[in-house]
Amino acid sequence: MADDANRAAFMELQSRMIDTTAKIKQVAPLVPFSDRFHRFRSCLILGLFSCRVLLQTQMRSKEGEKKRAYLTLEELRQLPDDTNTYKTVGKVFILEPKSVLFNEQEQKLNDSESAIASMQTSKDYLEKQQGEVENNIRELLQQDPGLARQILSMTVQ
Hints:
By secondary structure, this protein is mainly α. The chain has one domain (2-153): Helix Hairpins (Orthogonal Bundle). It has four helices and two strands. The protein has a two-stranded antiparallel sheet with strand order 1-2. Strand 1 and strand 2 (92-96) form a beta hairpin. The relative contact order is 0.16. Pfam families: Prefoldin_2. One of its GO terms (biological process) is protein folding. One of its GO terms (cellular component) is prefoldin complex.
């Protein structure tokens, strides 16, 4: 009876872990797992780690965009209003008024800041959820060593 209760609890925790992983994937798209990972536990841990790394990479990318926009704005501020300014479109340079370029860079800066804040909030929330689920699974497996042996003997198809 206790064995069935532990198994049901593990299945519920497994479901929560999969849901958390899916939410992390929505925040940071993940390349599918390689077939070389056969253990269920290894797949979960490696998948969550990969999602976290991709999310951090996206945040660094947005930080770079923010810095470029800020530096461009600083350079544009120093120019007189009658200066010819050009916007790159692919390999072509298009003459644009300084005000248009200035507004575009301000928009990029604001977009980057809001994206970074959103990603950080999502990352914090999902990492908290992930930690709670991992602790619950760890406690469950410590309570029932038989269940732990069963899980470790399973292979992912």
